[in-house]
Structure formats: C-alpha cells, structure tokens
Amino acid sequence: MRRIILLMSLMAASVAVAQQQSSPNGNVVLTFSLTAEGTPAYKVTYKNKPVVKESTLGFSLKKAEPTTTVNEPLTKNFRVIGEQKSTFKETWRPVWGEESEILNHYNELLVSLRQEGTNRLMNIRFRVYDEGVGFRYEFPSQKELTYFVVEEELTQFAMAGDHTAWWIPGDYDTQEYDYMESKLSEIRGLMKEAVTENVSQYAFSPTGVQTSLMMKTADGLYINLHEAALIDYSLMNLDLDDKNFVFQSHLTPDAQGAKGYLMAPCHSPWRTVMVSDDARQILASRLILNLNDPCAIADTSWIKPVKYIGVWWEMITGKSSWSYTNDLPTIDLNTVDYSKTKPNGTHAANNEKVRRYIDFAAQHGFDQVLVEGWNTGWEDWFGHKKDYVFDFVTPYPDFDIKALNEYAHSKGVKLMMHHETSGSTRNYERHLTAAYELMNKYGYNSVKSGYVGDILPVGEHHYSQSTINHYLYAIKEAAKHKIMVNAHEAVRPTGICRTYPNMIGNESARGTEYEAFGGNKVFHTTILPFTRLQGGPMDYTPGIFETEMKYVNPNNNNQIRTTLARQLALYVTMYSPLQMAADLPENYEKFMDAFQFIKDVPVDWQKSVYLEAEPGRYITIARKDKHSEDWYVGCTAHEGGHNSVLSLDFLDKGKQYEATIYADAKNADWKKNPKAYTITKQKVNAKTKLKLKAANGGGYAIKIRKLAN
Ligand code: NOJ
Ligand code: CA
Fold it and tell me: What is the mean pLDDT of residues 175-180?
C-alpha cells in the first residue's frame, strides 16, 4: 500500500529563477521564486486560473537576550542553495473518520535558502495536492540561528479579486462568532457588527479574520485558507489589505507580545490553500489530515466513537444550575465545607437525576452520559482571574461518584467526565494526574474539558504558543491513561486528531449552546463544514427537538433557528465520532418516532459521498456505516430552504434498499412551524432519484437500509 517515489533530488547549488511543482492530476500548480530583493515568494494556480498571486514569505524577529545576536528579519537577500522534488502516495486507515481509508498523494518541492550576509538557513517545503497546497517553513540546525523569537510571521496570501468570504473576526481568545458573508472589500465596514454580539477585547484588527476562511471567486472557484499541525507555535489569524486583497499572517501573541519562541531545528505549522471549482471537493478533501503526522499512539484499541446524552441542556437553558448552593458568593476550595451549606434546589448533577439519565441512555442504546456540575467550585467559577477554582476530584455532596458509576456500568453505560478549567491552565496541569487517576479508578474513559474565561497565567491567550502546548499536553497525558478528550474553547483543530486520535472532539466554534443564549444564524450549519470542520470534528451538540426554550425554562424566550428535521440531518452533515443527543429525555419522549433516527445513526463511517454543497446555502451528504451496509443522508439548508434531486447511484447496483425519510412537512418553517415533520418509507435502489425539499432553515435525514435479497 505504501509507495514513496523520489523523482529528483538535490540539484546543484545554483540560484533558480523559478521552480514549479504541480499536483498529481496537474490541476494545481505551485511556483516558487525569489523577488529582485531575494525575498522568497510563491503563487498557486488551479486549471490555469490564479488562486494565490505572487505572495511573499518570511519573518520579522525580536531580539532575544542573551542568545540571539542577529535579529535582522528573515525577509530578503536569500539565495536558493538547493531544491528537491519528490512524490508521495499512500493510503492510511484512520482510527475513526468519514471513511475507512484515506489517500495521501502529493508532489513535493523543498527549497533550501541561505540569507546572504547572515548565512542563516531557512527551507520552505511545499506539498501540492489535487485539492490545494500546504507549505511550511523549516529551520535546519545551524550555528547562525538557534534560539529565536518571532515578532511576526510574514506569510502573504494574495487573492486575485474581491472574493465572497464566509468569515468571523480575528481573535486571540474566542472562536464562538456567528459567520458573516460578504465581499472582502466589505469586511472592514462589517467588523463592528461582526464583533458586537460576542464582544472580545482581543478582536484585534478592522480587517482581521480567522481561519479556516472560506471564499468563492466571481468565476466559481472555492478557496479555503487554514493551517495544519499547529504544534508548539501560536495560532495564525489573517489580516487583510483590503485595497489589494492580500492577506497576511497575524500570529497570536503571548503575555509579553512575542509570537513564538523557536529553537532550530524546528518548523512552522503548514499553511494551507485548498481550491476547487466544485464546493463538494472542499468537503471531500483530506489535505489537512494528510499534512499531519501518522498516529503516534501504538495501541488505539481503547479509542471508541461515542454517542452520548448529558445533564447539560437544562443548565445551558437556565432551567437548573451547575452550582450546589447559593450560600457562597465566593469560594476557597481549601476551606469551604459544602456539607454545611444549604443546597440551592436547582443543582442538576444529583444522584436521582443522573440515574434517570443513565436509565434513558441504557434504554435507547447510548454509550455515555455526560454530567456537568458534579464537582465542587461552580459557585464562583469564572470572570475573576482566579487561579484555583476546581480540583477536578471532589464531588458535590449529592453526587455519589462510586455508586453512580457502578449503576451506569451495570446497565452497559459509562459516565463522561467533565473538567471545566475556567481558563486556568496552570491549575489544570497541577491537578491533571490526580484527575485522570480518579477517572481510571471509577471507569470513565472520556472527558469533556473546557476553557471558559480569560486564560491564566494572566495575559496569556487561548491561542498563544504556551496555551497551544497546554492543550496537547492534556491530550498526550490523557492517552497515557487511555482517556479520550473533547475540549471546548480550546484552539480550533488543525488535523492533529490524525496523530492523536484520542482527541475525539472539540467545540472551538459557535455551537448549539448559543441557540439558548440568543441564537445562531440560520445558515450557520451550511458553513461550519467548510470552515471549522476542516481541521477536525466538532462537538456541535445537535438534536434539540423542543425548539422553543420557554418549554424548558419559562424565563428563556429564545427559539432555536432550525426545524426539527434539520436537527436529525446534522448527525450526518456535521461529521464527528462523538455525537451528543443534546435535548432533555422528556423532550425526546414527545417525539419518539423522530428520535429513532438519532438512535440509529452511526458515528463512524466507511465512506462519505458529498452530494450537494454550496457554502451558506445547503449541504447534502451520504455516508455508509462503518459496520453495516446501511447508508445515511443528511441535508441542511439556509433561510431560503433547498430543493434536492438526489441520485442514489452510490448504492450497490442491483440491490434493494428501504429508505426511511425524515423530512420537513409541507408547511414547515424554522420560525413559524419548526416541529412539523413527516416520516415516510419507500423502496429504493441505485437507479432511484429522490426529490426532496428542505424548508426555510430546514433539512432532511434519511436512513437507507439494505434489504436481504
Ligand atoms: C462552555 C461549553 O461550551 C459548555 O458546553 C459547557 O457546558 C460550559 N462551558 C461549562 O463548562
Ligand atoms: Ca463554548
């Protein structure tokens, strides 16, 4: 299966004017050159159309005493001292994923550079795929550059026009924004509107945006900018020069304003440019996963996809609380004695309630039950830069950790651990070993972690280098304890789950929780697979059937912006090996026929077929179960709805199937009639064409069961 061909290697140490490498099918062409000043530059074309016009590369450096003496920028006076071209092709099998085999096929160009005058060495490695390009900076071991501090990475992405973009503001601390759709030239004018709702003091620039950034050109090219394998480096945002449509990297600073402490030999993460004239190919691409290293965990047998319910939505909607008592305006875990406090009567994570959730999970075939608010500290948990909030090991008096785990296990269910760190990474690291040991002791194998609030130590950001290192530390330590991690508010993923597949989830974008806080734009789920999901799965927490919050909490007047049928579709369109059925058991009990789809839908796949896709409008995906011959289809649509004509030619020829279609009823509408759905059954085969309609803000879900014939 594995095949590596070295085509051409180490050319003479001569200055090349321009070097090209093209993708295996020839559609994508990468050109490297040096400008007249000796500045490294690259450009990318797709089927001869410009994708990235000539864009320069380099770094400005900070003077780091006492080790760096030369802080002259790495921007000019470079000479090419070597070039290597090679081809790589292999298929690999992910532990879990959208398909059971992934092809990694690229042509590589490695350019070795030396800076005249300083003699410093910097290489740039390009990998050219049929769906785009990844490139990174590499610093070989050298006398002239060992320890250095990045002031800014100066990577440009020069766009060829005023493209349409689906963007959220650049930020050092939150990704939980609603998307904007606009021309690049309109970003500046819309920035205020884009940040208002989710005010962050670190939304830094009038034209700064986050990656993964999705764009469409006037002549129909789909372009996506992101990064892969973000390790020991700070996260990249993009600043737009909106006169010339040139993006430039803007790294996340640390508390000192530095953007990265590097020591050669080292390299940057990959910068990625994906491109296609068919939006479905952006969803089908595995470029970002492929740019990450292979799995670093030898035995992965303990890593298992998870379908779960949780004691969660009732806190999010404000019906009940994470905290145990209202007696304590502040807490000091060293001295507080909860047994002397009065229970507030709204604490959700109590023995009785958790048993009810366990019963419901067992009855309907869920693997796990998340319980938030099980541990002491929630009375005073964020917003005050408190270093020590949680110890992650002490349950509240009404949560019997031993008995509840035993009860769950007796019913074939596991509890899911919850570690809210309130952003205090140092406190979490102090308690991490004890916390994971406690999980091992009681038989938990997965944890949902979270980083709400300002990062501590004070001044650090959610996406600065040391915090990036913290997230990976937690994942690696978890692996030692055979624990799977689903981190909320952590840095948006960059394909690292290939290397560490115990990282089975992340939130790292605006999830369903915002529907209870005011709402997500109707088109949100038609964008996320093009952006946030490029780097890895999202714990979006779909499955809200009771679309009006007032029925959960009379004081919450929000309405989720979706139809009920679309909530089912999200289990297919929002790929994740970790899926929650987020609503309350009593709400599922009102719609048991629709709930059947959530019970049936798998969380691990053999194959995925991207049937229809247009960012901001609609996405329709078919996936084949990893462990059976059954297929599942999901469609999510924007405010204007969507009409589909689906050809089922992905089914086995000559075989018969039964389709169960969960669709919006004729008069359904996300706002006026969200819970109107129909469930119909019909026989289908590979020749069938299905005409289906998604309502405004609606969607549909189909289970296609293979019949024995
Ligand atoms: C924010 C997370 O996204 C949410 O899921 C969690 O319930 C709260 N933080 C509390 O940890
Ligand atoms: Ca969150």
Answer: 96
Residue closest via CA to ligand 1's atom 10 equals 420
Residue 384 alpha carbon to ligand 1 centre in Å: 17
CATH, domain 511-709, list 3.50.50.60, 3.40.50.300, 3.10.20.580, 3.20.20.70: 3.20.20.70
Ligand nearest to the CA of 314: 1
Query: How many CA atoms does the CB half-sphere of 477 hold within 13 Å?
Result: 18
Distance 695 CA to ligand 1 centre (A): 30
The CB of 450 under 6 Å from ligand 1? The reply is: yes
Q: For domain 2-290, which architecture applies?
A: Distorted Sandwich (2.70)
Ligand 1 touching residue 452 (CB < 6 A): yes
| Pocket lining: 372 vs ligand 1, CB cutoff 6 Å | yes
| Residue 108 in contact with ligand 1 by CB distance below 6 A | no
CA terminus-to-terminus distance, the chain:
34
What confidence tens digit (pLDDT) does each residue in 61-84 have?
A: 997 655 555 688 999 999 999 999
- Is it the case that residue 197 has pLDDT exceeding 80? no
Residues forming the active site: 513
Q: What is the mean pLDDT of residues 425-431?
A: 97
d(CA 23, CA 30): 8
Domain edges within the chain: 2-290, 511-709
Closest by Cα among 71, 109, 120 to 87 = 109
Q: Is the pLDDT of residue 657 over 60?
A: yes
Preceding omega of 395 cis (within 30 degrees of 0): no
Is the pLDDT reported for residue 10 higher than 50?
no
Atom of ligand 1 minimally distant from the CA of 489? 3
Work out whether the CA dihedral 686, 688, 691, 694 comes out positive or negative.
negative
Q: How confident is the model at residue 196 (pLDDT cuts 50, 70, 90)?
A: confident
**Is the minimum distance from the CB of 176 to ligand 1 under 6 angstroms?**
no
Count Cβ atoms below 10 Å from residue 379 Cβ, excluding itself: 21
Mutate to test the pocket of ligand 1, among 513, 515, 517, 544 (most ligand atoms within 8 A of CB): 513
Residues 6 or more apart whose Cβ sits within 8 Å of residue 51: 28, 44, 45, 160, 221, 223, 273, 275
Instruction: Work out the pLDDT band at 4, boundaries 50, 70, 90.
Output: very low
- The CA 583 to ligand 1 mean position distance, Å, reads 15
Fold matches, 2-290 and 511-709: no
pLDDT band at 377 (very low <50, low <70, confident <90, very high): very high
> Please, which residues have CB within 8 angstroms of residue 254's CB and are 6 or more apart in sequence?
234, 459, 460, 461, 464, 465, 466
Phi, psi of 649 (to 5 degrees): -70, 0
Best residue among 420, 421, 540 to mutate for probing ligand 1's pocket (most ligand atoms within 8 Å of CB) is: 420
What residue spans of 450-608 are helical by DSSP H?
465-480, 564-573, 585-589, 592-600
